[in-house]
Amino acid sequence: MATANTALRIAELDFDSIKTNLKDYLRNQSEFSDYDFEGSGLSVLLDILAYNTHYMGYYLNMVGNEMFLDTAQIRASVLSHAKHLGYLPKSKTGSTATVNIKVTPTNSEDNVSTTLVLGRNVRFISEPIDGISYVFSTTEANTAVKANNSFDFSSIQLKQGEPVIQQYSARSNRKYNIPSANVDISTIRVTVQESSTNTSTQTYTLNEDITEVTSNSAVYFLEENSDANGSYTVYFGDGIIGKKPANNNIVILNYLITSGEASNKANSFTLIDSISGYTGNVIVTPVAAAAAGSEKESVESIRFKAPYYYTTQNRAVTTEDFKTLILKDYPNIDAVSVWPGDQNDPPIYGKVFVSLKPKDDYFLTILEKERIENEIIANRSVLTVFPEIVDPDYTYLQVNALVNYHPEQTTLSQAELKQLIRQSILDYRDSDLKTFSSTFRISKLQKYIDNSHPSILGSTATIFAQKRVEFFPLQTKSYTINFGFPLSRGIIENKFYIFPSYTALDSAGTPREVYIEDTPNSITGVDSVDIVDGGFGYEVAPTITITGDGTGATATATVLNGRITNVSMTNKGADYTVANITVTSEIGAGAVLQPILEAKLGRLRVFYYKSNGEKVIINSNVGEIDYNTGIITINGITPQSVNSSRYIENYISFNAVPLNSLITPLRNNILDIDENDDSSINITLVPET
Hints:
Blueprint: H1 15-27, H2 42-66, H3 75-84, E1 96-103, E2 115-118, E3 123-126, E4 135-138, E5 142-147, E6 150-160, E7 162-169, E8 175-178, E9 183-193, E10 201-206, E11 219-224, E12 232-236, E13 250-257, E14 269-271, E15 282-291, H4 299-312, H5 319-329, E16 333-340, E17 351-358, H6 366-377, E18 386-390, E19 393-405, H7 414-432, E20 440-441, H8 442-450, E21 456-470, E22 477-482, E23 487-488, E24 497-499, E25 502-505, E26 511-518, E27 526-536, E28 543-548, E29 554-560, E30 563-571, E31 579-584, E32 589-597, E33 601-609, E34 615-626, E35 631-637, E36 641-642, E37 651-658, E38 662-663, E39 669-672, E40 681-687
Parallel strand pairs: 10-11, 17-18, 19-39, 19-40
Antiparallel strand pairs: 1-6, 1-15, 2-5, 3-4, 3-14, 4-6, 5-6, 7-13, 8-12, 9-10, 9-13, 11-12, 16-17, 19-21, 20-38, 21-37, 22-35, 23-37, 24-37, 25-26, 25-36, 26-33, 27-32, 28-31, 29-30, 33-34, 34-35
Helix pairs in contact: 1-2, 3-4, 4-5, 7-8
């Protein structure tokens, strides 16, 4: 009888290990102790056994992965897990445009009616985008009253999509399929008609809170199907949780089939259908270009958002609740920042502030903000807390890189090497910047630069932070520019400047091309004291006297072994452009101390250049720059015009070097490098041999 002196090992799951374990197991049976497994037919049977075991192990491992939201890969599995959390993934979303419509009846049309209804699902065709025109449809009915022989419809929203209407006879399983995967589920309208002979209808709304549903609640439920088509199913309650349509009722589904984000930026439209019979003289004027179109939510997005949505319980209380709900219901958002009013600057209690960065633009339109506030936030937030949407505050970084390289270690031209370095800088931007709470680290930027090419030996970088401010020609206004972090008071190349110039009138009323600069050495205190020579023979701390054209600076000295080893500022004083230090002591001599002036506040002035290069000041105190806080104030200027089109019309950039090599933005501030600005990246190559 066969006996075994070892157990079969089952921990390994790869093919070779399984086969080896089977052979080792059989070799330890008395009948197979001298058997040649490799040269016999039994080897084929072992291959089959090992393959089958490996296959089953792999299959069960994949089945195990699909049992959890974190590891599931198949969309159907992820949808099932999301459904358990009450999360409905976003469908494709049609872009929304805003237009004004003017209808003027022609002689052959009805000229008697005094009111006109612009119905739901009236279609318009857009201008071609990449050679393709898209159908846009009205989503709500609107009424206009005739005035001056015309009907004017203002701020009409057009949703991209082709209208579809489906009808079903109510049946016992209560489920009705929407066959297309491209439906915009936000446009679904569900009505139930009594019968084919009774046309009275009831509108059903999408359920959002199961705890408020009763047996008579006219709600419907929606889910994405797990089939490969990615279609959707509408279903109703069972008469206990939600109203159940009766037999012979007619279920009517009305929705749009959309092209998603492809139609974004459409901004010219022509009527396809008639407006209650009028077609001859219809003028469509764009108000806001189409935006907010998006594709169906991805598996990774569902995996990330579903647990957070579950924690919100469909209410907005914490800052994370606001973020989760907005990202779920408005997929055109690239990033969200939310902060309570008590953390605002200045604090405003009873409010919560929301800043949103859209995917395809820098800012949301007013209509988009109103929609988010009214449709997504308002009915979910705490009654005593009022949400307010504010625009992102962009700070652009200008990179001036000095790069040392070995020319013999590359066949690239300097232009090609510069292009590689530029792309590396943009890669750093895409990886670390362009969103809220993105921290800039100059060391990490330099690492990207140094890794651009093997021939690069090292690099240094100077960073200018830039704020772009709209000036208002021919208006007297004051401006406040807040960088949100400390600035360095540089000299010569690294000092504060604006670009471009603007035109202002001098005291004689003559137009001048002027600039704004920090007045050199204005309003400074004594920041610290350097010890040039500690002296000798001091038994007690000597008296330190600071003199100059400022006032109030005082300091104390520390003595060790007869020498001054440290000087501490007890009061930095103010208004020093020049300072001197006198050391007084009855015992001891020889100490030499050097005051270091601080740069806390800078007085700004306006100047222009004569043709011979002479600088002429026309306003010696136009405002100030606080280098500690990064706040610039400009008082009451009246620009005539702005003298460049580098940025958006009438915008001027304020530029300064950050004090620290690490910048952490607050609240709604976003750091970015503008690749469309040729001056944003400047690279100087220094060859070394």
